[in-house]
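From: lab user (bench 3)
To: helpdesk
Subject: output format question, protein + adenosine-5'-triphosphate

Hello, I'm new to running complex predictions and I'm not sure whether the block I got back is the full result or only part of it. Here's what I submitted:
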Amino acid sequence: MSIILDKVNYVYSTGSAYEIQALKNINLQIEDGQFIGIIGHTGSGKSTLIQHMNGLMKATSGGIYFNGRDIYEEDYDKKELRTRVGLVFQYPEHQLFETTIFDDVCFGPMNQGLSKDEAGLRAFEALKMVGMPESLYYQSPFELSGGQKRRVAIAGVLAMKPEVLILDEPTAGLDPKGRDEILDLIADMHKKKKMTVILVSHSMEDVAKYVQRIIVMNSGEIIYDGTPGEVFRHYRELETIGLAAPQVTYLMHELKEFGLDADTDATTIEEAKKSILKMFR
Amino acid sequence: MLRDITIGQYYPADSIVHKLDPRVKLMAALIYIISLFTFRGVAGFILASLFLVFMIRLSKVPFSYMVKGLKAIVILMVITAAFNLFLTPGDQVLVHFWIFTITMEGVKNAAFMLVRLIYLIVGTSIMTLTTTPNQLTDGLEKSLMPLSKIKVPVHAIAMMMSIALRFIPILIEETDIIMKAQMARGADFENGNLIRRAKSMVPLLVPLFVSAFRRADDLAMAMEARCYVGGSGRTKMKPLRYKKRDYLAYLILIVYLAGIILLRVFL
Ligand SMILES: Nc1ncnc2c1ncn2[C@@H]1O[C@H](COP(=O)(O)OP(=O)(O)OP(=O)(O)O)[C@@H](O)[C@H]1O
Ligand SMILES: [Mg+2]
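Helpdesk reply: Thanks, we reran it on our side. This is the complete output you should expect:
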């Protein structure tokens, strides 16, 4: 069970004056149950990459395999693929359309062919998971705040019970509390439901705190792929492409330069705390 | 998929046609359209063709780009050709079966009509491909300014046009994203009978309208925040001014039109 991308290339507006190669020779294997972060500068191709993973975009060249099967095969069921690889778009609140929140969350499960009752049950569970108060279930989604809309939209994808959950900057434009709540929710899904999660983010802190593996994109290419410790070791190179390492990394490097035995691979506050306490033991 | 629409698509290139004043290009398009419906016979046709080829060459826009616009009117072309082919009365009957009659005149009419339509689309797309929407509305505003004397809100119309043009690509992109987002939730826009397909448009159209209204609202607010009050007393950062090449272009246009008219009158 995995997603494999094999030499994937993608070109926008082929054959026009505005041709852009958004993905260049991407090779990637995503194992079951991983929690992966994708980071990269604006326009580096993150959104393009993840839309390939559930077959919404067709690679200009290259192959994509889900659980060992080529998704570009003639008779491959793309609709099924999309329900198994759930994708939450950037600003997903813009896709809400139903008259009530509850109905909107039911849209996905209904498309999966579930009965009304089953779909309702799924919607109920999903809304509960994202922490929507029950009193709002039958309100119009357009009357919610931005953060609440975001939750409803995420619930709309969760209700389909995907095996792989991909989120494109789910926390963009949220306040710190809302951000933490959503990320904790996602981490929870990963832990309890054993879901594979791919998180696109601009926040190095978030990525370092939650994920096991980081993929760094730069102008359509994967330039680093490894654990947070490994990737943020290249913090100087990351800076040259407009990214940075978490604050903690910088702190640990400075402590090291100071002559202390700091663990420079620490990327979260927890890890840093451990390392610093060890120094003074 | 939706991105293939060429309407209002500017093709950046460094050519003399790109540099011309938009008013010249608007006038040129108008004159060319008039000439297409004025010419008669083979000589006029050759002159119109030469002029078109000359313009295409000069504009440095790939020819394939211009024919793209033709795809949109294939049906119109077929219907026009069919009507002319079958419904033109004439003496020289070529084919006759059941209620259909094809005459020599019909064939000629159909052919000329097709050529006119194709030239019309290609000719006007030279204008839109070499002029940014902003320039185009600027040109239109300035050309129509005399009408404001009789209380036509020229500036408002031009502003509306440029906003509408500006919103086309945005809305297309938005449609694309919403469509994909709903497809990610299992929506199916392609299969099913007519009723199901119409129904499947709801998850696309509702968010699209909501976002269009939101954008319009935001834009109105942003314009007001920058003290936009409409046309009176408004100056331009890049006012349109005729240069030497523009006068030359007008001259060529007049010569061309005169040629077409002369050919029609004397041949
Ligand atoms: N619909 C499109 N048409 C043409 N080019 C596009 C389109 N969408 C994206 N691109 C181009 O492809 C490249 C990658 O875009 P993509 O949206 O994947 O970036 P991203 O990493 O998700 O950026 P962000 O962090 O801003 O979301 C960019 O250079 C962008 O200009
Ligand atoms: Mg993106």
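A quick orientation on your result: The first helix of chain A runs from residue 46 to 53. Let us know if anything else is unclear.
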